[in-house]
Amino acid sequence: MEGAVKVFKSMVGLYPSVGTKVLGLVFFLALAIVGNKVICGWACPFGALQELIYSIPALRKIKRRKPPFWLTNTLRAGLFVIAMLLLFGVVGGRKGFVVYHSVNPFNLFNFDFDVWTIPATIVAALVLSFVMYRPFCQLICPFGFLSWFAERLSLTRVRVDHAKCTQCGACVRACPTTATQGLVDGKVFSADCFSCARCLNVCPEDAIGYGLVLSRRLEASQPGQVLRSP
């Protein structure tokens, strides 16, 4: 999140070097290209907290919500645009106001709660995690928004063999977001896929797997196993 925001903060003079901040963002985006959402899905500490709450076995009977992607991404993109307009002084007439400072959940890890909106954001995100998958990531996170674009270039990602797919919906039901539905439908700009792997073992036709985009086919050694790309 800081990697995404500090680039723009440096452009308005809040940091001395724009180049180093750009390199930091490029590095994280490059990781997102190497592996789909590899940072968000497998390295983000606040993402892990949301994931743990959502995955508590005793809560599986709770009805989970999958908000439509057009709604969640519109909210996330809208906040990003507003943040940039305020940061560059287009709105408000004063450069340097950083919206994301007020909703930064990563302050939890150094117990820095200088404004009340930070703990409020943390509590709201964790409570929502009982019924919604990674709400902060889907609704607010600026790096999540930027890496969503990078997903189109990811070298390794979830893939669907449309020749085998029977549209049974097993993977769609297993997916905590609407990402798998977009992949099955062949959408270019589907919802964020966090590479959570929930869809991989539920396909009865072995039509879904995780592997290199450049590989020509999907293989599974036995039915029910995670599919691998050669």
Low-confidence stretches: 219-230
Strand content: under 5%
Q: What's the total count of β strands?
A: 2
Major sheet size, sense and barrel closure: 2 strands, antiparallel
Structural class of the helices, strands and pairings?
A: mainly alpha
What's the end-to-end separation, in Å? Answer: 34 Å
Strand order of the largest sheet: 1-2
Helix content: 40-55%
Mean pLDDT: 88
State the order of secondary-structure elements, H for helix, E for strand.
Answer: HHHHHHHHEHHE
Radius of gyration: 19 Å
How does the overall form come out from the CA principal axes?
globular
Number of domains: 2
Number of H- or I-type helical stretches: 10
How is the secondary structure organized here?
Elements: H1 2-11, H2 18-34, H3 38-42, H4 45-54, H5 69-87, H6 117-128, H7 135-139, H8 142-150, E1 156-160, H9 170-174, H10 179-184, E2 208-212
Antiparallel strand pairs: 1-2
Helix pairs in contact: 1-2
Describe the structure.
This protein has about 230 residues and is mainly alpha-helical. The chain folds into two domains: about 1-150, no CATH class; about 155-210, Alpha-Beta Plaits, CATH 3.30.70. Helix content is about 45%, strand content about 5%. The chain contains ten helices and two strands. It has a two-stranded antiparallel sheet. About 30% of the residues are buried. Residues about 220-230 have low confidence and may be disordered.
Features:
single chain; 230 residues; mainly alpha; Alpha-Beta Plaits; 2 domains; 2 strands
